[in-house]
Amino acid sequence: MNRIRGLLGVFVAGVCAATAIPASALAAPSTVRTPVEVSTLPSVVGTYYPMATPTRILDTRTGNGTPKGKIGAGRKIDLQVAGRSGLPATGIGAAVLNVTVSGPTANGFVTVFPGGEALPTASTINFAKGWLGSNNATVKLGTGGSVSVYNRNGETDVVIDVIGFYAGDESVMTERGMGGQVQWYEPYRIMDTRTWGVIPAGGEFSAWIDFHDYNPKVQGLILNITAVSPQRAGFLTTWSGEGARPNASTVNYAAGKVVPNLAYVKTMPCPSGSCNGATGAARYRLYTSATTHIVVDLVGVVDDGTEVDGMRFTPMSPTRIVDSRIGQGLPAALGPNATGRVTAPAAMLTDATQVLAMNVTAVAPTANTVVTVWPADTGRPKPTASNLNPAPGQVVSNGVLGVLGPQDAFHVSNLSGSTNLVADVVGTFQVYPGTAAGTRRATVKPTVAGSGWTPSTS
After folding, report:
1. d(CA 209, CA 322)
2. Does the global pTM surpass 0.85?
3. Signal sequence: where (predicted)?
4. CB 3.0–4.6 Å: which of 64, 253, 317, 340 could bond 259 by disulfide?
């Protein structure tokens, strides 16, 4: 399955840059799990459907989706998701949301959880007083297709953009056809503007990855996008590039910070004559409101629903599996250059489970640090990518695809100082029997062939 022999390109202010990426993030499968039987009955349950463009469904600052006003301490609001903004009224199992907190009056956290259910012991986004930031959250829909939004302390505004959804039953097929499956990739850095130049305020540019023969199957990318040292507070927006920039955000950042966020990004094929000749490559578009560097890591691909070893999603209520403060999952805080190993609870898994969808939180690190998650027991070194980049004393979260190794475990590392870690699982990805190769695949890091970014005038 050597597919990602690609060309990543970025176009900024008339200058094009490219890097060759000629190895695959996939490899021949390893015989670890029991083969699963192939189904001949088509199903869309657990497949992913992107919004045409990210769409805002909640903004407490304006009264969109709820009466205008901040959410108070210990209060929750109920938000209707299904049937709004072009979403199906029925058949949604979980929604992929970008949750933003603006202007909180106290340190605290917000939890987004299925409507009608009890408040879980979990958090979606953690913040300090006055903070501005966002986190990608996949949330199971509850009563009537709704979610609840709970604020722990003080008062805060909350903004939610819907990025896409996972089918909960077969009714979605009639209206939307076949959805996409998720293919995981070992985290791999595909863009780092620190190597070729800062992106100016108001900068809008295209980026692409050429998967060659696999291009026709690529419907979207799952990326970890990081704003590095922006000159002022602002936001990044990513979308397919089709149509005008949407009124939505992907990463919200404060001046001088390093702020990552997981992003599901719909792609469009590069037309003939564009993308340095990479016709058909998966192209998307980015915008930044403030001058900043941008780092992008590839962590997954959404296919067309037919690719071998494609994964489907099963949502669940947020469930905590790691809290190093109390010795759950990890015995203690991770020190400098320390790596912990977390075994997934057996009750969450089937023989087809490959990935945990998680919200991972770093709690009050003692130094600027980098937290990275990758599969355990594979013999692979820590990838050159990051999931969290917290500053000293911060409590910061990010969505993570926790790929499991052959013993149902993942590694998590801390670079500097000491930090506690918390992980909440919101669902699992499992190989769909109808497209399964029969065994769990191994993970191989792609390699770069070339010298990095090469400026061009086309």
Report:
1. 34
2. yes
3. 1-27
4. 253
